């Protein structure tokens, strides 16, 4: 059976859900296809919370996107029934700290200054005084951004999909895309239930499957994407209030053992989330080891013992998640090197969820207007070389 529509969104995780929402708002006929569930825990948008901040040490060029992302998350919160699902965003602040010359510590200040973002620079003594549970290393410098906080990731994804459905989007779930065949006038999208969707455009937001699924991988061009296993752990602090807002902000620490971050206890649960950033094994969504080992736990507890000892206890729960990394850790957003009718949104290298709202809007702009008000040069899917011919 062939079914016509304007746009198919492949994958309704963080980015696909946002794209579906913004496309549905343009009055187009939209079909979203999701293989696993809304939400689900097999991909990259699982684990309760995601840090959101504006003073971006990764690159100050992200700041305009982050400013728009904040506005769009607030608009989404206005159309969601918070009494049913709870808030989407919790303001908590975020402290980025480490050696004063570290590129991230320097970068966060540079981004804040360039875009006149409110921030405070704290030395090790000021950090310990302001946040008594935290133990910085001697000489550490911190940059505190009060506007930062965390998003409730599964709530946000569900809110985007529910909003899109109310605006007329059709959702096929569970249903898997098995082939994408772009032509000059349209793209045929085969779905495993025996349907072919014929669309003018496709938004491909398949997360780690963009790297691992050979059918989808072809649309990422020459980008050498890799999937990295990441472990999320939640701990019961000895004193809950000391690891909850406002006593503890989100924080990211750069130290000799690598980068670790933590997110304070949610309003309905005092558990502290703590994780290593990067440093995981390369894997695929099908083969990843979803069990959390004693070594995974010890790694994070060693960090907590040194820097947040009040939270050093047996973990309450854990969840394995996946990063999809590009070589330069910047996203892939734009027309596929294989077909301008396929808009790729992925490769978010472990830092993309906070921008899901604006990336969804950008995907809709690229489909409807053929361009974006944002400079997307940083994210060009062609930047790693020409596509394999199709
Ligand atoms: C542990 C961890 C911590 C993170 N922390 C932060 C943070 O603090 N702040 C931040 O901004 N970002 C963070 N990130 C990054 C962020 O979560 C990801 O960039 C984002 O969730 C990626 O979303 P996605 O839509 O690309 O992928 P996913 O959410 O995995 O969505 C892809 C979807 O495509 C579907 N799919 C795949 N193949 C098919 C197919 N053939 N047919 C139909 N559907 C298909 C999948 O089922 C899936 O639902 C973190 C990531 C991890 C793993």
Polypeptide structure, described:
The chain has about 400 residues and is α+β, with helices and mostly antiparallel strands. The protein has 2 domains: about 170 residues, FAD/NAD(P)-binding domain (3-Layer(bba) Sandwich); about 150 residues, 2-Layer Sandwich (D-Amino Acid Oxidase, Chain A, domain 2). It has 10 helices and 20 strands. The strands form 3 sheets. Strands 5, 6, 7, 13, 14, 15, 16, 17 and 18 form a 9-stranded mixed β-sheet that branches. Strands 1, 2, 9, 10, 11, 12, 19 and 20 form an 8-stranded mixed β-sheet that branches. Strands 3-8-4 form a 3-stranded antiparallel β-sheet. Strand 19 and strand 20 form a beta hairpin. The longest helix is centred in the N-terminal third of the chain and has 17 residues. The two termini are about 25 Å apart. The structure holds flavin-adenine dinucleotide. Flavin-adenine dinucleotide (FAD) binds next to helix 1, strand 3, strand 13 and strand 18.
The coarse silhouette is globular
Helix content: 25-40%
**Helix and strand element order:** EHEEHHEEHEHEEHEEEEHHEEEEEHEEEH
Question: Which secondary-structure class do the elements indicate?
Answer: alpha+beta
CATH topology of the largest domain, what is it called? Answer: FAD/NAD(P)-binding domain
Radius of gyration (CA) equals 21 Å
Cofactors, ions, other ligands = flavin-adenine dinucleotide
**Regions with pLDDT < 50 over 5+ consecutive residues?**
none
For the sheet with most strands, the description reads: 9 strands, mixed
What top-tier CATH class of the largest domain fits best?
A: Alpha Beta
Architecture of the largest domain, CATH level 2?
3-Layer(bba) Sandwich
Rounded average pLDDT: 96
CATH superfamily of the largest domain: FAD/NAD(P)-binding domain
State which percent range the strand residues make up.
25-35%
Number of domains: 2
**Strand count:** 20
Q: Ends: how far apart?
A: 25 Å
> Count of helices?
10
């Amino acid at each position: 059976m062939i079914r016509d529509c304007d746009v198919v969104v492949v994958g309704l995780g963080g980015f696909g859900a946002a794209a579906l929402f913004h496309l549905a708002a343009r009055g187009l006929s939209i079909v979203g296809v999701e293989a696993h569930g809304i939400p689900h825990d097999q991909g990259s948008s699982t684990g309760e919370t995601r840090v959101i901040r504006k003073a971006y040490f990764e690159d100050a060029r992200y700041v305009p996107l982050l400013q728009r992302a904040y506005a769009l998350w607030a608009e989404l919160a206005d159309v969601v029934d918070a009494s049913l699902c709870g808030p989407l965003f919790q303001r908590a602040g975020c402290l980025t700290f480490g050696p004063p010359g570290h590129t991230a510590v320097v970068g966060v200040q540079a981004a804040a200054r360039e875009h006149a973002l409110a921030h405070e620079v704290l030395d090790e003594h000021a950090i310990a005084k302001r946040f008594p549970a935290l133990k910085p290393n001697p000489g550490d410098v911190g940059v505190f951004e009060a506007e930062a906080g965390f998003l409730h990731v599964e709530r946000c994804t569900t809110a985007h999909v529910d909003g899109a459905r109310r605006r007329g989007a059709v959702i096929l779930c569970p249903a898997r895309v098995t082939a994408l065949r772009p032509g000059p006038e349209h793209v045929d999208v085969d779905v495993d239930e025996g349907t072919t969707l014929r669309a003018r455009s496709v938004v491909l937001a398949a997360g780690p499957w963009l790297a691992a699924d050979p059918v989808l991988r072809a649309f990422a061009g020459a980008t050498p994407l890799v999937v990295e296993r990441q472990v999320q752990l939640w701990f019961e602090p000895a004193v809950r209030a000391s690891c909850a807002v406002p006593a503890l902000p989100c924080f990211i620490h750069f130290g000799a053992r690598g980068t670790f971050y933590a997110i304070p206890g949610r309003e309905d649960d005092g558990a502290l989330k703590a994780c290593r950033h990067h440093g995981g094994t390369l894997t695929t969504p099908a083969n990843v080891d979803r069990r959390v080992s004693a070594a995974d736990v010890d790694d994070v507890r060693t960090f907590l013992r040194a820097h947040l000892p009040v939270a050093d206890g047996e973990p309450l729960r854990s969840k394995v998640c996946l990063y999809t990394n590009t070589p330069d850790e910047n996203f892939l957003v734009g027309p596929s090197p294989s077909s301008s009718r396929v808009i790729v949104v992925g490769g978010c290298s472990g830092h993309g969820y906070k921008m899901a709202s604006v990336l969804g809007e950008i995907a809709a702009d690229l489909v409807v207007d053929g361009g974006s008000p944002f400079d997307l040069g940083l994210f060009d899917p062609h930047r790693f070389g020409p596509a394999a011919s199709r």
